[in-house]
Design a protein that fits this description.
Length: 81
């Protein structure tokens, strides 16, 4: 298996852009089988990186709660915990 350690350092935007490039190559059908396998594996690593970054961002998003007067009263985690 190829080492994709560099994927762990990519920003969401860079990982997504590379993933989109890989999907385009694979969908084009002009990639040799062995290269397709390597690209697919890298795509899986990039997808996992994007998923992890999205989950982290979601955990940090807070919902503003409103008091009885309609003014912001504080914040709570998005999932209500």
């Amino acid at each position: 298996m190829t080492d994709f350690a560099d994927v762990a350092t990519l920003s969401f935007e860079k990982a997504l852009a590379e993933l989109e490039t890989i999907v385009g190559k694979l969908e084009g059908g002009n990639v040799p089988l062995e290269e397709s396998i390597v690209l697919y594996a890298r795509g899986e690593a990039l997808k996992a990186r994007c998923d992890a970054l999205l989950k982290d961002a979601e955990a940090r998003v807070e919902k503003i709660t409103l008091g009885a007067d309609g003014r912001p009263a504080g914040t709570v985690p998005l999932d209500g915990e």
